[in-house]
Design a protein that fits this description.
Low-confidence stretches: none
Protein name: Diguanylate cyclase (GGDEF)-like protein
Organism: Motilibacter rhizosphaerae
Shape: globular
Bound molecules: ligand C2E, magnesium ion
Number of helices: 11
Mean pLDDT: 89
Domain EAL: 24-277
Number of strands: 9
């Protein structure tokens, strides 16, 4: 009886694993198609200079226009991208499109920076700096117009590898940013030593800050820390004018969030002259 139960258990487990694998393989094939057939879409969200209210940059946020399932948010497929080994071609697509779009708005006289999210796997993988340098040259976009956002929850244990990857990109003049700061494992030692230009305070501290004195204490400290280290600080998840105002008062450099705009196709951001830098 015991044996048959455990056999049944193993069979169920194996079937589950096979389904998972089949699903992952299916998604992998679908993702390759999505990249080839241009089913991925970039939406952009303004990053605003809090002292002037001008848009100084935009963050590229990927969506998947799936033929059957509609417009999918990154949460619906990013894990699968990471696990299926397609993060290389995926990020290459995002970078190509973002740099191309940046060249297009520059042609219209709009001088926004563009921020692109990169996975730690991309960063420590082969030749990201070479790829980025070639793209910028191809489209005539200055290196300091591109920011690469690294999520700190994903900071790897291999500090040497990380440091040399960040150094190679910083050498090009590309700006580096630590995303979702406050939710991961960045140490003060890393903050001091990595040539990172910007710290992005995670939106979990920002959105409700006016109703929470602990959130405010954390944000105030991170702003002071960033200033002391000579880094730029951006608060994400700014949803209301009062949070915008408070952040400006405490000396936060930039803000991003629904207070200004949800992520949209970049051409829609041009329709609102007040938001252009
Ligand atoms: P993130 O880089 O921290 O991006 C900010 C997320 O917060 C975006 O979600 C954005 O739509 C959302 N957001 C912005 N302002 C507000 C606000 O005021 N309130 C609230 N509640 N939310 C706000 P999204 O677009 O769903 O992206 C989720 C995450 O997916 C991103 O978080 C980023 O980690 C990842 N991601 C997005 N695009 C890419 C990409 O091209 N490559 C990689 N590797 N990751 C990406
Ligand atoms: Mg980001
Ligand atoms: Mg973030
Ligand atoms: Mg976040």
């Amino acid at each position: 009886h015991e044996a048959s139960r455990s056999t049944a258990h193993v069979v169920a487990w194996t079937e589950q694993l096979q389904t998972l694998t089949a699903e992952a393989l299916g998604l992998q094939a679908e993702l390759r198609r999505a990249i080839e057939e241009d089913e991925l879409v970039l939406h952009y969200q303004p990053q605003v200079d809090l002292t002037t209210g001008a848009t100084v940059g935009v963050e590229a946020l990927v969506r998947w226009q799936h033929p059957q399932r509609g417009l999918l948010p990154p949460a619906a497929f990013l894990d699968a991208v990471e696990q299926s080994g397609t993060i290389g071609p995926f990020t290459s697509w995002v970078l190509r499109r973002a740099v191309r779009d940046c060249a297009a708005w520059r042609e219209r006289g709009v001088d926004w920076q563009v921020s692109v999210n990169v996975s730690m796997r991309n960063l420590v993988g082969p030749a990201l700096a070479e790829e980025v340098a070639a793209l910028l040259a191809q489209h005539g976009v200055p290196a300091d117009r591109l920011t690469l956002e690294i999520t700190e929850t994903a900071l790897p244990a291999d500090q040497g590898l990380l440091a040399s990857a960040v150094a190679a990109l910083a050498q090009l003049g590309v700006e580096m940013s630590i995303d979702d700061f406050g939710t991961g494992f960045t140490t003060f030692a890393q903050l001091r030593s990595l040539p990172v230009c910007e710290i992005k305070i995670d939106r979990s501290f920002v959105s409700g800050a006016l109703a929470d004195s602990e959130d405010r204490a954390i944000i105030t400290s991170v702003v002071a820390l960033a200033r002391g280290l000579g880094r730029r600080v951006l608060a994400e998840g700014v949803e209301t004018p009062d949070v915008d105002e408070w952040l400006r008062d405490i000396g936060c450099d930039r803000g991003q969030g629904y207070r200004w705009s949800k992520p949209v196709p970049w051409t829609e951001l041009l329709d609102e002259p007040a938001r252009q830098g």
